[in-house]
Specification:
Layout (H helix, E strand, L loop, with lengths): L4 E5 L3 H12 L3 E5 L7 H4 L3 E2 L8 H23 L12 E5 L2 H18 L6 E4 L1 H7 L8 E5 L3 E2 L2 H14 L3 E3 L3 E6 L4 E5 L2 E5 L1 E4 L5 H5 L8 E12 L10 E4 L4 E4 L4 E5 L3 E2 L9 H14 L7 E13 L5 E4 L6 E5 L5 H16 L16
Parallel strand pairs: 1-2, 1-12, 2-8, 4-14, 12-20
Antiparallel strand pairs: 3-7, 4-6, 5-6, 9-10, 10-11, 13-16, 13-17, 13-18, 15-16, 19-20
The structure holds flavin-adenine dinucleotide (FAD).
Length: 370
Amino acid sequence: MSSTSIAVIGGGIAGVTTAFHLARRGAHVTLVDDGGSGQATAASAGIIAPWVSSSDGSYYEAYAAGGNFYPEFLSQLEELGIRELGYRRSGALMVSADAADLDAVEERITRRVQDAGPVAGTVERADERRVHELLPALAPGLTGLFVSGGGRVDGRLLRDATLTGALALGARHVPDSALGLERARTGWRIRTTAGNLDADAVVVAAGARVTALLEPLGVHVGISAQRGQLVHLGLRGVDTSPWPTVHPFAEHYLTPFDGGRIVVGATRESGSGFDPRVTAEGQLQVLRNALELAPGLATATVLEARAGIRPVADRGVPLIGRVPGADGLWMISGYGAGGLTMGPLFGDAVARDVLGEPAPDLAAFAVTSG
Ligand SMILES: Cc1cc2nc3c(=O)[nH]c(=O)nc-3n(C[C@H](O)[C@H](O)[C@H](O)COP(=O)(O)OP(=O)(O)OC[C@H]3O[C@@H](n4cnc5c(N)ncnc54)[C@H](O)[C@@H]3O)c2cc1C
């Protein structure tokens, strides 16, 4: 049991997974989260299929490593008796009306799936009949590439389950706002609305709001806010549980869940600022794209609309690790559109780093202050 006290600011996927992995290692952890609106994790679509993404370079490496770590993370939760996560590996289906699009990526996707091993499953070229069999609501004329290991998870359930796991392992949850950070005699002092909280080390995992905490310390990390909106649709009397996630060659997608719920999204509104509103324009865009891709959803019920603010790093890769010039301070932010996938792995990496245990090399994600 480590006697070091560590505070984590932020209760999205970055913060809860860090708190969980710290608690697993016996640290005294306090998680501070204000439950503010616009949490990206709460809005996320839940796709865990990095192999079909258009990302590359270090971002893709992180994304893929996050996907590979999922089974291990889920088994860590399961050891605590936590199973209800809305997680299912029903595959990821890339589709296009132009077979040349699929030809152009097939080799790359196949290589990625092979590199990932069993977690990614297999790749299958799907003709129009097979595409329709996999997801009958899709438009005619599409063929596809089906990656059998693609998965999806309910971001809210996963967040809550991870926090529950952390609390079961001894972590403390403070539902409050961190108003500011200052150096204390040893470590750091967090000013909250209810008073001060001192810790030997602090991990700032405040998503797109990370800058509000770091800039007063003279640390400028280059994280921008990008709004994402999506819509949850409901189909009555249809077993959607075996339906795969669907990825046309564009930024929108479908994520089917059990019980007839299909999430369609999402906008990528760069320059939105931290403005977590659902807008008429955003909803129009999401629904138009979804119904063009899957006309069979036209009569579905609109269950709810969500908006979340993605933390996007100007440098194009997440910023993970020690904050320069601030001993005892770490940050995790900038996961962009893949944070639900990357969170568990990097929460573990940062927990190790904070506790001085051997950790994966985070050099590609090193935090710099401009
Ligand atoms: C529409 C949408 C769809 C997405 N789909 C996917 C997907 O399919 N797959 C995938 O892998 N990723 C997806 N993502 C991306 C993923 O959701 C994000 O990358 C990830 O959730 C970011 O997590 P985070 O913990 O860094 O930030 P957040 O989830 O935003 O959490 C930050 C937390 O910090 C708290 N906080 C901030 N400041 C303070 C403070 N001063 N005091 C106390 N608390 C504070 C906030 O209230 C919040 O709870 C999607 C995102 C969006 C918006």
